[in-house]
Write a structure and sequence with these properties.
This protein has 329 residues and is mostly beta strands. It has two domains: 2-220, Clam (outer membrane lipoprotein receptor (LolB), chain A); 233-324, Phosphorylase Kinase, domain 1, CATH 3.30.200. The protein has helices at 2-17, 42-55, 110-115, 312-320, and strands at residues 58-66, 69-80, 83-90, 97-104, 120-122, 125-127, 133-143, 146-155, 162-168, 174-180, 186-197, 214-217, 233-235, 243-250, 253-259, 264-271, 281-285, 288-295, 302-308, 322-324. The strands form four sheets. A ten-stranded mixed beta sheet has the order 7-8-9-10-11-1-2-3-4-12. The longest helix has 16 residues, at 2-17. The relative contact order is 0.17.
């Protein structure tokens, strides 16, 4: 089960790093403690990065590193008549490929909305990315032969990881994403080694290259402009700054996704007739935690699986807080 979850999460990160961050606000020069020229302001850099991932044609190769493991992947992203198409191919290890199409450019996720400076109403006020992170511009770097601005996001609490981004000064695309824990040690890195941006790309480049591929319908990806959905379940405790971005419910259980604009996690919740048959445990791959647990509830206990880019202690607090919104009798 863990390996299946991690495989799905890696795909989502590959496509949604690339689509929610490499996915994953009110920023001004004054918020950084110094005035910045327009090209160097944090708010503009983050908004450009979010838009570039959805709006530009690009293809290249990037590495994904965690622990002692390094994977190499290829991405091709094409926009035709306002619709995105994308192919992600693993170039080493087990043959894996993900092809996605059908998402309109006007479909901005909740995380992307926060990343672009959006404010989300919530009880007692509004939520913005600036509530969860301090942002700093750390100078410039050169990655994949391209000049980049380096932005660091430092969490304001222990419930989330830090992140450093290198953003292409010309295209706005994220060239590198580095996830760090509080002691500044890196636990995960995405980094382009080759990148071409802005060229016309033939649609044939989106076709699967091997037998082992998954076809994803981008039209089913959640957008901020549509209601997140409904569920009788909820996380009774969330880290400050996290909001629900998507909910689905069917006979197999409920799926609830939360984000703070950079980090995200998903809860898979299913009532259990026999709690002893539900396997429990945890695992981690890079910044991604997977936690499986039985949570007591009425009339039946539920099996809860959390998968996402949060520390284990955060995942544990969220999972144990899951409860039904229906009053007990």
């Amino acid at each position: 089960m863990f390996f299946q979850l991690f495989s799905a999460e890696s795909m989502f990160k590959g496509s949604h790093l690339m689509a929610a961050f490499f996915s994953l606000v009110v920023f001004t020069g004054n918020a950084l403690g110094q005035e910045q020229d327009p090209l160097n302001s944090v708010d503009e850099l983050l908004e450009r990065a979010s838009r570039a991932l959805q709006e530009q044609n690009y293809k290249g190769r990037f590495t994904y590193e965690f622990g002692t493991t390094m994977e190499t992947l290829e991405i091709v992203h094409v926009v035709r008549e306002g619709v995105e198409y994308e192919r992600i191919t693993h170039l080493n290890g087990v043959e894996r490929e993900f092809v996605r199409g059908g998402r309109g450019q006007d479909c901005v996720s909740t995380g992307g909305f926060l990343l672009r400076g959006g404010l989300i109403p919530q009880a007692g006020g509004t939520v913005s990315l600036a509530q969860s992170y301090h942002f700093y511009i750390r100078g410039r770097d050169r990655i994949a032969g391209r000049d980049a601005e380096v932005v660091q996001a430092v969490p304001k609490d222990e419930y989330r990881y830090g992140m450093t981004l290198a953003i292409d000064r010309i295209s706005g695309l994220p060239l590198m994403s580095l996830v760090t824990v509080s002691n500044k040690s890196a636990i995960e890195r995405f980094q382009f080694t080759e990148l071409e941006v802005g060229h016309d790309i033939d649609m044939a480049a989106i076709s699967p290259t091997g037998r082992q591929h998954a076809q994803l319908d981008g039209a089913e990806l959640p957008c901020k402009k549509t209601p997140p959905g409904e569920s009788i379940w909820r996380a009774g405790w969330l880290p400050p700054g996290f909001v629900v971005s998507h909910i689905t419910s069917d006979n197999n259980g409920d799926v609830l996704t939360y984000t703070d604009g950079i980090a995200s996690f998903t809860l898979f919740i299913k009532p259990l007739s026999d709690p002893s048959s539900f396997k429990q445990g945890m695992a981690r791959r890079g910044a991604t935690t997977a936690l499986m647990s039985v949570v007591p509830s009425t009339p039946h206990s539920v099996g809860v699986v959390l998968v996402g880019e949060v520390p284990f202690n955060t995942a544990q607090q969220v999972v144990t807080s899951v409860a039904s919104s229906r009053p007990s009798h």
